[in-house]
Write a structure and sequence with these properties.
474 residues, 3 domains, alpha/beta, 11 strands, Rossmann fold, single chain
């Protein structure tokens, strides 16, 4: 199967991707970052694989296959958000995380649910632009360098600027433009510029000025106005102003301007919209907070909760949302909702919304054994993070296995005795454990520190003696 040049490596119809990204391989990749939660990993792997399968079907059948949205149920800090985020990174799909509690029913002050699709489109556009800019970065840097030389050498023509002769003599044609040889001064300055010897020099560049602040608009009013006008920045951001900056900063600003010029905005927006519609992922967190709890009155705030659910419903079912980059069809966007549901239940959501999340996965609470694995196994584990951080100061940090076990036990005990915040408790415990070392690290270059069981017990003496966890609670 041939691959369109305009498509990214994330194109799910690509044969190589289809062969490589099997559900088993997807789960293995997620295992590199997330410990446990095998059921949730299998569910999202199958959902992703089904999207890839759909892309390989004839168009008439493909349009009929809706995504199998997922509802994740489990306490905070067990990996719900991380699973969705890693899934999006794995398939290079536009992704956003939103909190259901930030939205209000239509007619109330606040953000309406359609803004999540606008945010997703903005994320997709940023992704596409970044990819397109890679191919033109060299040309953008070249143009920025020429502009910088123009600023450093005012009045000296560029080597590629044509020089025209005077008026043609009677009976002769006008002289053709000549390209002068590069001037010695310009080439000398170019060498100095490339060598970084002019970075501290100050130049004056023209930059985009900020437009007036529109404080009278908020929430829906601002978003609707921006969509209607195709972007407020285009209306008020046209004014430019001069600013004195260093050559190093000017190079960065001018290169960014040239990158923007070299990327076709219409083509980028069209590709971003295609990706959002076909591969976009929206993670809706805290959906349990907008559920009507059984036995509660249906007045007041509960009406607003149900109203938000009813506003979300058409977005999840499939509708067209207006954005400043054009209309976006949400029919094939994958929605992953999550909530602890420790007070309300999934059944407290309106039936129509429940039906739009056919796959339900319960995530398990994390144990001390899980914490021990989280500390060491993931690619970016906390032990690796703190080891690398202190290595920047010249301190060699090493964790003994018994110390990792003790840290995991303390975090699990703190969660059991107080609010269970899952793996986030490990960061609190690690910060407490390494507080003194992190403070003194600048004066300990060349020192090797081994964190063993005794070191952990000395830092958590209150816990060892009285099981006092009050100091380690967020």
């Amino acid at each position: 199967m041939s691959v369109d040049k305009d498509l990214s490596p994330a194109d799910f119809a690509d044969s190589a991707n289809f062969a490589a990204m099997t559900p088993r391989k997807i789960v293995e990749e997620l295992d590199r970052y997330i410990v446990g939660q095998d059921k949730a990993k299998r569910a999202v792997a199958i959902a992703l694989r089904n999207r890839m399968r759909r892309q390989r079907l004839p168009e008439d059948i493909r349009d009929e296959i809706a995504p199998k949205n997922i509802l994740m149920i489990g306490p905070t800090g067990v990996g719900k958000t991380e699973i969705a985020r890693r899934l999006a990174k794995l398939c290079q799909a536009p992704f956003i995380k939103v909190e259901a509690t930030k939205y209000t029913e239509v007619g109330y002050v606040g953000r309406d649910v359609e803004s999540m699709i606008r945010d997703l489109m903005a994320a997709g556009l940023a992704m596409v632009k970044a990819e397109m800019q890679v191919g033109v970065k060299e040309e953008a840097d070249r143009r920025a360098e020429e502009r910088l030389l123009d600023l450093l050498l005012p009045g000296i023509k560029r080597p590629d600027e044509p020089v025209f002769g005077g008026a043609a003599a009677p009976g002769q044609t006008q002289a053709v433009p000549e390209i002068p040889a590069p001037t010695d001064s310009r080439e000398k300055f170019r060498a100095l510029l490339r060598g970084g010897k002019l970075d501290a020099r100050e130049v004056e560049i023209t930059v985009q000025g900020g437009g007036p602040s529109l404080e009278i608009f908020s929430g829906n009013q601002m978003e609707e106005m921006e969509v209607a006008l195709g972007g407020l920045s285009n209306l008020f951001g046209g004014k430019r102003k001069k600013k004195a900056v260093s050559v190093a900063e000017a190079r960065r600003v001018l290169a960014a301007e040239e990158l923007d010029k070299l990327v076709d905005p219409e083509r980028a927006a069209e590709e971003a919209r295609r990706r959002v519609q076909e591969t976009g992922i929206v993670f809706i967190d805290e959906i349990d907070k907008i559920a009507n709890r059984e036995g509660r009155s249906s007045g007041g705030v509960d009406v607003s909760r149900e109203g938000v659910q009813r506003d979300i419903l058409p977005i999840v079912e499939g509708s067209t949302v207006s954005t400043k980059w054009g209309p976006v069809d949400t029919a094939h966007i994958l929605f992953i909702a999550a909530g602890a549901f420790n007070v309300s239940k999934p059944q407290d959501l309106i039936p129509e919304l429940q039906g739009r999340f056919p796959i339900r996965v319960e995530l398990e609470a994390l144990t001390a054994g899980d914490f021990e694995r989280i500390l060491t196994e993931p690619k970016s584990s906390l032990v690796k993070q703190y080891t690398q951080l202190l290595s920047s100061e010249g301190v060699e940090l090493e964790f003994a296995p018994v110390a990792v076990s003790r840290i995991a036990e303390i975090a699990a005990a703190a969660n059991a005795a107080t609010e269970n915040i899952g793996a986030r408790r490990l960061t609190t415990v690690m910060e407490r454990l390494l507080e003194e070392l992190s403070f003194e690290a600048p004066s300990m270059a060349g020192v090797k520190v081994t964190v063993d069981g005794a070191y952990v017990d000395s830092r958590f003496k209150d816990f060892a003696e009285r099981q006092d966890l009050s100091k380690y609670i967020l």
